[in-house]
Amino acid sequence: MTKAVYPGSFDPITNGHIDIIQRGTRIFDHVIVGILMNEGKNPLFTAEERMHLIRETVGDNPNVEVRTFSGLLVNFVNETGADIVVRGIRAVSDYEYELQMALMNRELSPNVETLFMLPSVEYTYVSSRLIKEVFRLGGDISDLVPPAVLERLHAKLR
Ligand code: PNS
Predict the structure, then answer these.
(1) CA-to-CA distance for 153 and 158, rounded, in angstroms?
(2) Which residues are known to be catalytic?
(3) 88 Cβ contact list (under 8 Å, min separation 6)
(4) From CA 100, how far away is CA 98, in angstroms rounded?
(5) What is the rounded distance in angstroms from the CA atom of residue 108 to the CA atom of residue 73?
(6) Which tens digits make up the pLDDT trace of 105-156?
(7) Is 0.90 surpassed by the pTM of this model?
(8) Ligand 1, atom 13: nearest CA belongs to which residue?
């Protein structure tokens, strides 16, 4: 069985993330969405809230599992029994940071391979950071996040 981990902060999950998860399930038998419990980054949503939002959105797919993790990503990947990390790359600007992470993860755990995937072109400019900023300023982001996220953003920020 092919198993991959799709890690991230997902604060909150966007349609761009969902696009990558769906593409991942066409390639792998099992995709584990790994949410980093990065409370130090002062996330808008707690790890638990982020997990619920992702489960509400993609939880009906039996090939997708949603989990939280802390510490090193490679340790989490090895714990799950997966050996592939999936990361979405939107633009060239993402590549430098992603390259560093992938090579560092390879140094830490040579059995873990990183696979970069491209989201649908309509989501190449979407990021969780911009979603929060635009929503806070009253912009319409309803086409860019799942309905559950929009609802929670309203409850939190307006
Ligand atoms: O969605 P993000 O914030 O771009 O995801 C970054 C993430 C969670 C993949 C990265 O920060 C990570 O793997 N953190 C776990 C700690 C770790 O392993 N750090 C070393 C990475 S080389």
Answers:
(1) 8
(2) 17, 41, 90, 128
(3) 16, 17, 19, 20, 94, 116, 117, 118, 119
(4) 5
(5) 10
(6) 999 999 999 999 999 999 999 999 999 999 999 999 999 999 999 999 999 9
(7) yes
(8) 73
